[in-house]
């Protein structure tokens, strides 16, 4: 190896080492940039609720889940039955009553009962209204603030929370259905007649209990979905009571003559009714007197 080779070889080694250091620097910078992008991507994906979060660390997932739970609306599972009673006096019943029916149609309610009455001193109507639960309060206000309302005699509201009874009934129904399914599986495996009859009787009893509970649940659900408002609406009429009769002297005399004549007619009719008895009494008296006269002639 000559002197020229000894000079070139160290220079080449130094050049290779410098390139390697530059490459390592570039790789390190690229890795740091990639790591920053990956972390940003993980955080953004976790917050936006992406389905695939396999690349997000556990603490990021927990923060994203907590944020999503706070943002999500909470479902209200309360079951409340609302009822209301209203007494309304109208200035003119026939003219203003249509405002009540307009309010019923406006708030998607319907009439379930109606009893209209006309009396000498009052026009009245007993109305039962079924209204969606969320429109109960606004309809109550609309009925008491309508045109032609002369006076609101009373306005009462009542609420009953039946959530516990409702969900308890649902749970009982689901439990009984599972029991029914087990009995049906047993029925498929039964071979003896007495076993089949016994299982069928059990299924019949459970089915009746399920249907009864489902009926109660439907009724409760209807009362929860649609509230009930009882409305008594009326109009007082002007009423003149008859004046007491104050007869004059001649009026009293005329009634006395009429009363005496009626007494004579009544007595005459009485005698006519008992004419057989009078005839019998007369015959007895005639025979008695004839007998007395005969005894006197002999004496």
Shape: flat
Task: Sketch the topology as an H/E string, one letter per element.
Answer: HHEHHEEHEHHEHH
Helix proportion: 55-70%
In terms of per-residue confidence, which ranges show pLDDT below 50 for 5 or more consecutive residues? Answer: 1-56, 70-74
Number of strands: 5
Q: Structural class of the secondary elements? A: alpha+beta
Structure description:
It is a single chain. The protein has 299 residues and is an alpha+beta fold. It has 2 domains: 3-71; 79-255, no CATH class. 64% of the residues lie in helices and 18% in strands. It has 9 helices and 5 strands. It has a 5-stranded mixed beta sheet. Mean pLDDT is 76; it is low at 1-56 and 70-74.
Compose a concise summary of this entry.
By secondary structure, the chain is α+β, with helices and mostly antiparallel strands.
Task: Describe how the helices and strands are arranged.
Layout lengths: L2 H45 L10 H14 L8 E11 L2 H4 L1 H9 L3 E9 L3 E11 L3 H9 L4 E13 L1 H27 L3 H33 E11 L12 H25 L1 H24 L1
Parallel strand pairs: 1-5
Antiparallel strand pairs: 1-4, 2-3, 3-5
Distinctive features:
299 residues; alpha+beta; 2 domains; 5-stranded mixed β-sheet; 5 strands; flat; disordered N terminus
